[in-house]
Design brief:
The chain is an alpha+beta fold.
């Protein structure tokens, strides 16, 4: 038998006459049983096991395969729960605690050392050691992890990944991880099973040293050499303890060895940041798979952004065009009367005059202003150029009502209209055709051989149906009627109503007023006048534009749905691949909500990255359409926020089921997963 550990506390003789005080056991099992179902057979892994383990002890549990020793260790470490019997830690019954409460106690009281090391390959040695701190509410402290690594003899391996460490170094890192939360007991399952003889001696010496410092050690092993170093040796077979041999007294417990019961705090910002950081590490470790899972989100968000930008641009262009129609406008036109049931030519018996316009402005309370208008064709010439264009006669009120404020120059005045002045404003098409694009203000042109001085250039209006709205010459109303077109009537009258809600009432009043003013017989009133409501036209066009935008965005949202399904599929695969990792995280103290948050964070990272790239793609597509097709685009912060919110929501929605599935895995079943 090897010599006892140098720091072991020897058994003290009893003082004569002093009462014998039985130490309170750290762990106590009474008649604990555990059975497993294997096909049609039931296997009794533990059969009415009773056991007490004191603080500071070093217990080796030995027995052949299938004897129940690993099951006993899992029950002791709260990784598994017994079917029957009592299990007490620090005098408190824990056999029926909720899983999250078990996680809290497991995190505070126990440290685990596994035969397979169970180090996460994406994390460095220091990050692996600090993993339990993530679930303790203290935050990941790498300096503390480096101190633990130095304590187990790895002062120069802080930033190495597991594949850069030898087997013995990996087991030392696993022991450092078990020590990071200052546990009361270390549970080691075949800690030297995968090591060479030299590494085995190093790990055994390290366990003896930790026990000498007062930490309770429980080792499951097949090796007699390890059993020979233990203070207490248990032998098992068929789920029962056959022998319990005390070889040395337990070491003096470390200070503050009372078991603490804590389910841990809630999720903290530092913890969420660490989940996101690990999610990014997962992305970088599986670049191709992550890129493929992001592709659906990327396309979906890109399509949403592009459709909204193009739709918004089209809407803005339409709004700019609608603004040229004016706001709250009614257009009164002469109609056709029914005489003897036969419809006459429009305007044959009803005509509108400037006096009608003045009467409407004076008599109808809702009318803010009027603009009687005449139209005709005219030949415009300048120097050697000529152009057939639309000639429109309007009063000065037309400028405000039809948003026709000149971009260059000025509009004509009431005095110029009354004097029938020969002044004109020209549209951009006329400027291009007659003046080659140069500034025409101050130049003289002829319209139907009548000289006019150009005093302004009208704002761009674009096309409307088959007509170019910029192909026009505006002249004062009186000038057009008496000097160019020879009309004593007007073609229509624009009426500006004070408020939108008064449009319908004003329309009825105007029609009744004109029927009475022109003394139209009741039999001929139908269709005598036509009144067009431009506000209704604007509303209909705007609503159609909005409907098209929603339709396009809905089509794009289908791509987001497909992308979400892709994320769910990838996350389900990830849960299956990382089942042992989930078991490890639970073994070091992770609660269900911690695992849920971990996998949700990874899902959201995938969707957010796809969303960000999708926003860039959508903006690029919008600019490409604007350049190649000349379409108007308008990217709004609301559209970007909407697309980004969609991507985050997709990550949460489609990542929740895989994350929930991961959180519900039982610790020991996850650790046993192959």
């Amino acid at each position: 038998m090897p010599p006892p550990p140098s720091a072991a506390a020897p058994a003290l003789p009893k003082t004569p006459g002093a009462p014998s005080v039985e130490p309170v056991p750290f762990l106590e099992l009474q008649n604990v049983s555990k059975q497993y179902r294997m096909g049609e057979h039931t296997v009794s892994a533990l059969d009415s096991v009773s056991l007490k383990i004191e603080q500071g002890d070093f217990v080796a549990i030995m027995g052949p395969s299938g004897s129940g020793k690993s099951t006993l260790m899992h029950v002791l470490g709260l990784l598994d729960v017994p079917d029957s019997g009592s299990y007490r830690v620090g005098g408190r019954e824990v056999g029926r605690l909720r899983e999250d409460d078990l996680s809290g106690l497991r995190r505070e009281a126990f440290g685990f050392v596994f035969q397979q090391f169970n180090l996460l390959p994406r994390l460095t040695a220091a990050e692996n050691v600090a993993l339990p701190l993530l679930y303790s509410g203290e935050g990941v402290d790498l300096e503390r992890a480096e101190e633990a690594l130095s304590r187990v003899g790895l002062p120069d391996r802080f930033h190495h990944h597991p594949n850069e460490l030898s087997g013995g170094q990996q087991q030392r890192a696993a022991i450092a991880r078990a020590l990071i939360n200052r546990p009361r007991m270390i549970l080691a399952d075949e800690p030297t099973g995968n090591l060479d003889s030299a590494s085995e001696k190093e790990i055994l010496a390290l366990l003896e040293e930790l026990n000498a410092q007062g930490i309770t050690i429980v080792v499951v092993t097949h090796e007699e050499e390890i059993g020979a170093h233990a203070r207490r040796l248990l032998r098992m077979r068929d789920g029962k303890i056959l022998s319990d041999e005390r070889r040395l007294p337990a070491a003096k417990p470390a200070p503050g060895t009372a078991a603490r019961f804590s389910a841990g705090g809630g999720l903290r910002a530092a913890g969420l940041f660490e989940y996101v950081r690990q999610g990014l590490a997962m992305l970088s470790a599986n670049r191709v798979r992550s890129a493929l899972s992001m592709l659906g989100i990327l396309i979906g968000v890109g399509a949403v952004v592009a459709m909204l930008a193009l739709g918004r641009g089209a809407q803005k262009a339409m709004e700019a065009q609608l603004a040229t129609l004016g706001s709250n406008l009614l257009v009164l036109r002469p109609g056709s009367r029914n005489v003897g049931g036969v419809a006459q030519e429009a305007g044959a018996t009803t005509k509108l005059t400037t006096e009608d316009a003045a009467a409407l402005r004076e008599k109808i309370p809702y009318v803010r202003d009027v603009a009687p208008t005449v139209n005709g064709r005219g030949q415009a010439t300048f120097e050697r150029r000529n152009w057939n264009t639309q000639v429109t006669g309007v009063p000065p009120s037309y400028e405000k009502m039809r948003a026709a404020t000149p971009t260059v120059g000025r509009f004509f005045t009431e005095d110029e209209d009354r004097r029938r002045a020969r002044v004109a404003l020209v549209g951009l098409t006329v400027v291009r055709e007659l003046f080659g694009g140069k500034n025409p203000v101050g130049e003289n042109i002829k319209v139907n051989k009548v000289n006019f001085q150009v005093i302004g250039v009208l704002p761009a209006r674009g096309g409307s149906g088959w007509r170019d709205q910029d192909d026009v010459v505006l002249v004062p109303l009186e000038t057009a009627m008496h000097r160019i077109l020879g009309k004593d009537y007007v073609d229509y009258i624009d009426l500006e109503i004070d408020r939108v809600e008064n449009m319908e009432a004003a329309e009825k009043m105007i029609e009744n007023f004109m029927l009475a003013r022109q003394k139209v017989p009741p039999s001929q009133r139908q269709g005598a006048f036509q009144i067009r409501n431009l506000a209704d036209i604007q509303s209909a066009i705007t609503e159609n534009s909005r409907t098209m935008s929603v339709l396009l965005a809905s089509i794009a949202a289908i791509s987001l749905l497909v992308g979400g399904i892709g994320i769910m599929n990838i996350m389900l695969v990830s849960v299956t691949e990382r089942t042992r990792e989930i078991g490890l995280r639970k073994a070091v103290g992770a609660r269900r909500r911690d695992i849920l948050a971990q996998f949700l964070a990874e899902s959201v990272v995938v969707s957010v990255m796809g969303g960000l790239f999708g926003i860039a793609l959508g903006w690029g597509i919008s600019l490409l359409f604007a350049r190649l097709a000349g379409w108007a685009v308008a990217m709004s912060p609301q559209a970007v926020a909407l697309a980004f919110g969609f991507s985050v929501s997709i990550g949460i929605l489609f990542g929740f089921y895989p994350a929930k599935r991961a959180s519900l895995l039982h610790p020991i079943e996850a650790l046993r997963h192959e």
